[in-house]
Amino acid sequence: MTPAAVASPGRLAGADAAPWKRPEVWGTVLLVVCDQLSKLLVLQRIGLHETVTVIPGLLNLTYVRNTGAAFGMLNAHDFAYKPVLVAALAILALLGILWYARKFAGDAWPARYGFVLIVGGAVGNLIDRVTLGFVVDFVDVYFGTWHFWAFNVADAAISIGAILFAADTLFSRRHVPEAV
């Protein structure tokens, strides 16, 4: 490991470390496993559109199929190549995230953990799209009669990861121009 990698407090593992020795890889794998296990439990125990109340007035588990993109976009539209288009868009987004992280993300923990959460979530949902043709969503947060979009572990990870990435981008010192 280089001296810079050791000296950087935000650095989780050296870039030269073997992939299986990097905490980011294990974090991503753990996230994908948790996401897929939670969806498997939903598929086995909750019927389509069935609701299980967890916290009355706040949280239900409701199994829905998301055949569209994030937050149900394109759900109302059906066309022949929709599953292929949505999966291709997901792959392009994942590749864009990987490129961005490699090019711009720093060693600070918000960027590194944000990257793990976004990639793990994207892979979890991509597995659903490729194997099932839809994403399993089941977390139903609501207040009175207003319901947020149903989501899953992968969606939550992507959202939190995006916030961490944005915080790193907005508040990182490496983006501040040096005084002349």
UniProtKB/TrEMBL annotation:
<feature type="transmembrane region" description="Helical">
    <location>
        <begin position="80"/>
        <end position="101"/>
    </location>
</feature>
<keyword id="KW-0449">Lipoprotein</keyword>
<feature type="active site">
    <location>
        <position position="137"/>
    </location>
</feature>
<keyword id="KW-0812">Transmembrane</keyword>
<keyword id="KW-0378">Hydrolase</keyword>
<dbReference type="GO" id="GO:0005886">
    <property type="term" value="C:plasma membrane"/>
</dbReference>
<comment type="similarity">
    <text>Belongs to the peptidase A8 family.</text>
</comment>
<keyword id="KW-0472">Membrane</keyword>
<keyword id="KW-0645">Protease</keyword>
<comment type="pathway">
    <text>Protein modification; lipoprotein biosynthesis (signal peptide cleavage).</text>
</comment>
<dbReference type="GO" id="GO:0006508">
    <property type="term" value="P:proteolysis"/>
</dbReference>
<keyword id="KW-1133">Transmembrane helix</keyword>
<feature type="active site">
    <location>
        <position position="155"/>
    </location>
</feature>
<dbReference type="Pfam" id="PF01252">
    <property type="entry name" value="Peptidase_A8"/>
</dbReference>
<comment type="function">
    <text>This protein specifically catalyzes the removal of signal peptides from prolipoproteins.</text>
</comment>
<feature type="transmembrane region" description="Helical">
    <location>
        <begin position="148"/>
        <end position="167"/>
    </location>
</feature>
<keyword id="KW-0064">Aspartyl protease</keyword>
<keyword id="KW-1003">Cell membrane</keyword>
<protein>
    <recommendedName>
        <fullName>Lipoprotein signal peptidase</fullName>
        <ecNumber>3.4.23.36</ecNumber>
    </recommendedName>
</protein>
<feature type="transmembrane region" description="Helical">
    <location>
        <begin position="113"/>
        <end position="136"/>
    </location>
</feature>
<dbReference type="InterPro" id="IPR001872">
    <property type="entry name" value="Peptidase_A8"/>
</dbReference>
<dbReference type="GO" id="GO:0004190">
    <property type="term" value="F:aspartic-type endopeptidase activity"/>
</dbReference>
